[in-house]
Amino acid sequence: MADSAALDRVITAPLSSVTAGTATHCPYCALQCGMMLNQDRDGAWSVSARDFPTNKGGLCRKGWTSAALLDHPERLTTPLVRDSKGGPLRPASWDEALDRIVAGIQRIQSAHGANAMAVFGGGGLTNEKAYLLGKFARLALRTGNIDYNGRFCMASAAAAGLRAFGVDRGLPFPLEDIPGAETILIAGSNPAETMPPIMQYFEAQRARGGKLIVSDPRRTATAKLADLHLALTPGTDAALANGILNAAIHAKLIDPIFIDERTTGWPATRRSVASYWPDRVERLTGVPARDIERAAHMLGEAATAMILSGRGPEQQSQGTNNALAFINLALALGQAGRKHCGWGCMTGQGNGQGGREHGQKNDQLPGYRKLDDPGHRAAVARVWGVDPDTLPMPGMPAVAMLRSLGQPGGVQGLLVAASNLVVSAPDAASLSARLSGLDMFVALDLFLTETSSLADIVLPVPQWAEEGGTMTNLEGRVIQRVQARTPPPGVWSEPRILSELASRLGCTAAFPSEPAEVFTELRRASAGGVADYAGMAPDRLAARDGLFWPCPDESHPGTPRLFLDRFGHPDGRARFHPVERRLSAEEPDDAYPLYLTTGRVLTHYQSGAQTRRVAELQDAEPAAFVELHPDAARPLGIRPGMLVQVSTRRGSVTLAARVTADIRRDTLFVPFHWGDASNANLLTIDAVDPISRMPELKICAARIAVAPAEAAPVAAS
Ligand SMILES: Nc1nc2c(c(=O)[nH]1)N[C@H]1C(S)=C(S)[C@@H](COP(=O)(O)OP(=O)(O)OC[C@H]3O[C@@H](n4cnc5c(=O)[nH]c(N)nc54)[C@H](O)[C@@H]3O)O[C@H]1N2
Ligand SMILES: Nc1nc2c(c(=O)[nH]1)N[C@H]1C(S)=C(S)[C@@H](COP(=O)(O)OP(=O)(O)OC[C@H]3O[C@@H](n4cnc5c(=O)[nH]c(N)nc54)[C@H](O)[C@@H]3O)O[C@H]1N2
Ligand code: SF4
Ligand SMILES: [Mo]
């Protein structure tokens, strides 16, 4: 694993080295680092760093190499269709491809009803594209079944934020507030690898004497920087948070004035943590009682403290509760609703924030409005020029939708835009089979991925540098992405594709195909909503480093800090929620004695569809691996570098072993950036959180053994 080396790779460019080009943002994660896209005299494209508040001139390796995909030889530049199931994909004209899609939609919907067509979107799409996808599903397809990959990513933190604060904005404060926090607890996130330039903020915090606590079953590159590492048993986050709160109560670190003035529900939460004594929590979590007490003191005695949540506690069948338990802790300590304080979630995808605000989530309308709220339906229907009663009601969330593919009464036709589901969704083997068996599967992508290569119709789309649009970063800051070059001939933008399909389907609502027109409409549709973009005129976005929502009118400065005066519930108060620790859906047992967790490494992004195609990144980290502790490896005869087989009740994968003392003895870690035989999601379970419907990507029971390929020569000798 990359450890301290990860940090060395955050290359901070002196501003004098920045060349002229187009000022834009990285295509990958939610930090949305500022960069310049440059073209040299030979026409080759390259990237250089640019000073922007989130990255301060730094970029990670993925950002630096992102231009490599623009002219990649495997890029799709023509629609592809398949003449029969199982037959090969062949190039087709746009006319033929769109005709086939329209015929498929009509066939499926007349046989099975409107909801038999479904749409699956992605948090990498611009706000404009996410907005249009939601509008297309509701008005042109008239289906309630639209959801997106944020269900695998942000859903638990979003559900917890909505419940506790009445508003879900990943970070309710800007990154610039981080250095002013005396203590920071990072719960299950590894930003040293997942957002390297952000580490400048944590370094500044440390330079001012601040303290860092990290909870993670692994001693990650981030945990190595911490003053206190809580190496908890996977799945025990709620117990840990309750234990810290219990210790804080006993140490009299609770803030009764804040609780009284700004919250509701404390007595029930106080009672609920009474049984979480530190020594009991030590038995539940494996974290020493004295470290639990130390964490309580570090957070409770600080004048200002933050708790930052990552996918570790969230991607669980109790992800919402885990997030709520940490929110309880922040509220009880009075570490919220003030500058340099608060709970926040580090949103992951480039537009993971905006992507969940404008309607590609099953229950949502633009502006973070709710599809089942009559007032919200009426407001958006007015902008769309339709009768509110024609809007469908919420359909299935992602995992339920994917389980229903091809089932009686389920989804028979699917359009996927910007997700490589076959690599990134849980329990991948059964998903591939269901996708291949659909009446019609349409994929919009840049490449033939593990997913789009299963589609009946594949449509090529532009890349980030070839289209304008807005993205909302992890801080809730809306920024502009500008067009720096024209797309290859033959590639149509998503707005153009959706607009053309809508009109061929006979939909009379307007589907603007220019991003600027779409954004104007989005601003109107979001006006008055929670995520209000109405005041975000493009020239205002361009003149500043973006604007934070809500920004209701053109004289409004935007809202970097959401909860300084009041929280988002009608009474202005934050709500406590009592949380009991529950077991994960599948705990280790005799047959599968280890925890399997999954996540990321620095060099690859998500399903790897993009970064596995960048030679420099692929050379640096060419294949999947499994991390395990020497004490787990030794009795099984596993030596570093050996091929091993990791198995769960869903499947097996063969990987190289990385033996390291930086992981718990009872835990295996496999990154999920690779497909085919080393796809981590062949192993994962599709159990979901009952509130957020987030799948349990972080925990299942597994076993490990030397792979037959390695064992064979030994047996022969
Ligand atoms: N290099 C890189 N950067 C990325 C991405 C990428 O794919 N690659 N993707 C982006 C996206 S979309 C996202 S969502 C973010 C994700 O960013 P992170 O949340 O930082 O990433 P993960 O590696 O998924 O998970 C974080 C940590 O959770 C730990 N963990 C596992 N199980 C548990 C548990 O039960 N409890 C706790 N507390 N921790 C646990 C893992 O050991 C891991 O170190 O990264 C973004 N940035
Ligand atoms: N086991 C395990 N599984 C996980 C996770 C985990 O921690 N463990 N993390 C989950 C998380 S947090 C996330 S966010 C998901 C992400 O997983 P995916 O949803 O698979 O995300 P990407 O790999 O980014 O796939 C994006 C796809 O869209 C294409 N693309 C890029 N830009 C565009 C565009 O503008 N338009 C279109 N149409 N296509 C585009 C890319 O080529 C790529 O194929 O994975 C989840 N899966
Ligand atoms: S941290 Fe994220 S936004 Fe910044 S360069 Fe890396 S991938 Fe791009
Ligand atoms: Mo994510």
Automatic annotation (TrEMBL):
Question: Which cellular component terms (GO) are annotated to the entry?
Answer: membrane; oxidoreductase complex
**Annotated signal peptide:** none
Q: Name one GO biological process term.
A: respiratory electron transport chain
Q: Tell me, what's a Pfam family for it?
A: Molybdopterin
One of the entry's Gene Ontology molecular-function terms is: NADH dehydrogenase activity
Q: Which UniProt keywords apply?
A: 4Fe-4S, Iron, Iron-sulfur, Metal-binding
- What CDD domains would the database entry show? MopB_CT_Fdh-Nap-like
Gene3D superfamilies named among the record's database cross-references: 2.40.40.20, 3.40.50.740, ADC-like domains, Dimethylsulfoxide Reductase, domain 2
Give the 4Fe-4S Mo/W bis-MGD-type domain ranges: 19-72
The protein here is known as: Molybdopterin oxidoreductase family protein
Which species? Lichenicola cladoniae
